[in-house]
Amino acid sequence: MLLAGAGIGLIGVRSRPVEQARVRDMVRDVPADGRAGRRFDDGAGGLRPIILLIAIAAMGALNEREARRQRRAVAAATAGTDPAWARERDPASARRLARTCLPAAMAAVVVSELVPAAGFGRRPSRAALAAGLGMMVAGAALRQHAIGTLGRFFTGSVTIQPGHRLIQAGPYRRVRHPGYAGIWLEVAGIGLASGNAIGFAICLLLPPAGIVPRIHAEEAALAEAFPGDYPGYTASTRRLVPFTW
Fold this sequence. Notes:
Blueprint: H1 2-14, H2 18-25, H3 47-78, H4 91-98, H5 101-114, H6 122-150, H7 178-193, H8 197-205, H9 207-225, H10 230-236
């Protein structure tokens, strides 16, 4: 909530009258040797934080839509009961995931405004905005592809359903957790689009702190449910990044 409030406050600062904005954009960093440094404005003006916050809101809305769909599917499958299989097996990793991914994206927006000296520069920053948004879209597409491949077995929770099958088709042929790879790609895209080295680093390094424990929780459940098939599957695939890990 604090990060969201800071982001909204920064947009308010960007929305001041044009005269004030022009004066601000004329400010330069002047180092001790007297030479004019890089301008604070990277060429995107006040639109960058607005674009990024809209992208983050869209990412959150898409995830919330999937969460509602999961709840409806579980309710339909259980006919109003509360069977043990439908309960989250590892709530701690679920909380950790929620505290790392979207907060990292919000932090990148805030840092890009508060620490402009860490910006990529005018032209690289404009290119980073386009590339980062493209990366975010690619991550969202990968996650939706993974969800569609799982079908009814996707719940967003660490659960094993009755009649559960080990899915190895689609993106699961290459990596065991393409949905989480998509989330990481989405957040990293926001960091790149921020045009700020610190923001990009936050979006690269913070999400794995939530994703990796979640992966371990899911793999423990799958290894228990499929003791015959899962070891062979893990031997032929990577967890998150093809050919790497």
